[in-house]
Amino acid sequence: MRGRGGRNRNRNRNRGRGAGVSGARGRPRTRCLTIGSSDSGGGAGIQGDLKAFARAGVHGTSAVVGVTAQNTRGVTATASVATDMVGHQIEAVLEDIGTDGVKIGTTWSAELVWLLVDRLVWLDDVPVVLDPVMVSAAGSALGGDEDAVTAVREGLLPLTWVATPNLAEARRLTGLGEGTDPRKLAEAIVELGARAALVTDAFSTGAGDVLFDGERHHEITGPRRASGCDHGAGCAHSALLTAFLAQGMPLTRAARTAHAAVSLAIERGAADIGSGRHPVELHPVEPDREGPPW
Question: Could you give the CA distance from residue 3 to residue 105 in angstroms, rounded to a whole number?
Answer without folding.
Answer: 23
